[in-house]
Amino acid sequence: MRRPGSQRAAQRQSRAELADAQQVVWTRDEGRCVVCAEQGSDVHHRRNRGIGGATRDLTAHAYSRLVLLCRVCHKRVTEDPAWGERTGLWIRHDVRPCWAVPLLYRGVWVLLDDDGGVTRVET
């Protein structure tokens, strides 16, 4: 049986973890959109948090799962998931972990790691 308030505590912890991860992502992506290099505004989850429940997913805020986008590119990836999947900005839950899925990062294919690093890959 769950203790009263434990769900709220888990939500607070999740929000704190996201805030910490967002800081790392802003630094890693130099404050610029990973698609068009314009000023970034939104931290985007490459694997949708709404599918499967982020509170049960221990990797919900992993650095390999998050990228910085401008508002225009963020709208595009949410309206065109096929484009998002082709560019590595959208990853279905039934595929490999985010750190194993290449991302088109300002025109170069890379892998993001969970330490906040970016490694160029040959395609």
Structure description:
This protein has 123 residues and is an alpha+beta fold. The protein has one domain (6-120). It contains 3 helices and 5 strands; from the N terminus they run H-E-E-H-H-E-E-E. The chain has helices at residues 6-28, 71-79, 81-87; strands at residues 42-45, 66-69, 103-105, 108-112, 118-120. The strands form 2 sheets. It has a 3-stranded antiparallel beta sheet with strand order 3-4-5, with no helix packed on it. The protein has a two-stranded antiparallel ribbon with strand order 1-2. Helix 2 packs across helix 3 (81-87). The chain is globular, with a radius of gyration of 15 Å. The mean pLDDT is 86.
Topology of this structure?
Blueprint lengths: L5 H23 L13 E4 L20 E4 L1 H9 L1 H7 L15 E3 L2 E5 L5 E3 L3
Antiparallel strand pairs: 1-2, 3-4, 4-5
Helix pairs in contact: 2-3
- Number of helical elements: 3
The parts where pLDDT drops under 50 for at least 5 residues are none
Order of strands, widest sheet: 3-4-5
Q: What would you call the shape?
A: globular
Give the helices and strands as they follow along the chain.
HEEHHEEE
Classify the beta-strand content into a percent band. Answer: 15-25%
Mean pLDDT over all positions:
86
Proportion in helices: 25-40%
Distance between the termini: 49 Å
Give the radius of gyration: 15 Å
Total beta strands = 5
Our count of domains comes out at: 1
